[in-house]
Amino acid sequence: MKLLSYTESHLDIKKVAKIIKEGYTICYPTETLYGLGCNCEDQRAIDKIYDIKKREKEKNFTLLFKDLNMLSDNCETSDSEARLINKFSPGPFSIVLKVKKQSSINSKIISPNKEVCCRISSHPFVIRLFEVLDTPIVSTSANLSGNNNIFLFKTIYNTFHNLVDCIIDYGDINKSLGSTIVKETSSDLVIIREGDLSSSLIMDFYDGKS
Fold first, then answer.
1. Is the pLDDT of residue 141 over 80?
2. Which candidate, 92, 113, 116, 58, places its Cα nearest to that of 198?
3. pLDDT digits over 25-42, tens only?
4. Which of 120, 150, 126 is nearest to 33 (CA)?
5. Hey, where are the domains in the chain?
6. Sequence-distant (≥ 6) Cβ neighbours of residue 6 within 8 angstroms
7. Beta-carbon neighbour count of residue 152 at 10 Å?
8. What is the rounded average pLDDT of the residues 103-107?
């Protein structure tokens, strides 16, 4: 297991990208929680994340994208969905979208409805990573399924150092509910999970009140 400390000047971000591209797993910081992640195209790595997380295979993961361009290359977006993404991303905002047929996202993390949960992160580590990585990455909170979120790096390390291939040390993080997840239906916008971003703020924007 590689333990890499995050500083803008010293972290070899190309090494981290190589670890991901070669099918290994990482634990890394986001603006909400530490995440467990891997290459979204690599089924073996995805299976390992499921095993580490002790998560039911029927529950899919969120994917992180560099920007709206990378997201649009892989997923279909309506005008209203694109408006939401432009308004609330990057940040603690996730949206469920249809995956395009030509996308290279592994089917293991695509729902039976051909959907995936998408997010653009504002965390400096993730931003730097996508400067050298050209594929979306899996993102699921770094805790065991059903357990509380972890905010102390010592607990992150003790829990995962024997399970993942690389951990990015960003220190302790602030308490977080995770990202707010939404999905547009044929008639409305549905809040799937309330997170750090206020659902009323999202709904007011969607309804044209802000």
1. yes
2. 92
3. 999 999 999 999 999 999
4. 150
5. 2-206
6. 29, 125, 168, 169, 170
7. 12
8. 95
Percentage above 70 pLDDT, the chain: 98
2-206 belongs to CATH 3.90.870.10: yes
Mean pLDDT computed over 185-189: 89
The terminus-to-terminus CA distance of the chain in angstroms comes to 47
Q: Name every residue whose Cβ is closer than 8 Å to that of residue 70 and which is 6 or more positions away in sequence.
A: 130, 134, 136
Q: What percent of the chain has pLDDT over 90?
A: 86
List the structure tokens of 116.
């995936």
Tokens matching residue 187? 């008639």
Beta strand ranges found along the chain (DSSP E): 2-5, 26-29, 34-37, 62-65, 75-76, 93-99, 115-120, 137-141, 166-169, 180-184, 189-193
Q: Is 201 helix (H, G, I), strand (E, B) or coil?
A: helix
Cross-strand partners of 6: none
Examine residue 90 and say whether the peptide bond preceding it is cis (omega within 30 degrees of 0).
Answer: yes
Residues in the chain: 210
Q: At what angle do helices 199-206 and 79-88 cross, to 10 degrees?
A: 140
70 vs 103: CA distance, rounded Å: 10
Sequence-distant (≥ 6) Cβ neighbours of residue 160 within 8 angstroms: 27, 36, 52, 142, 167
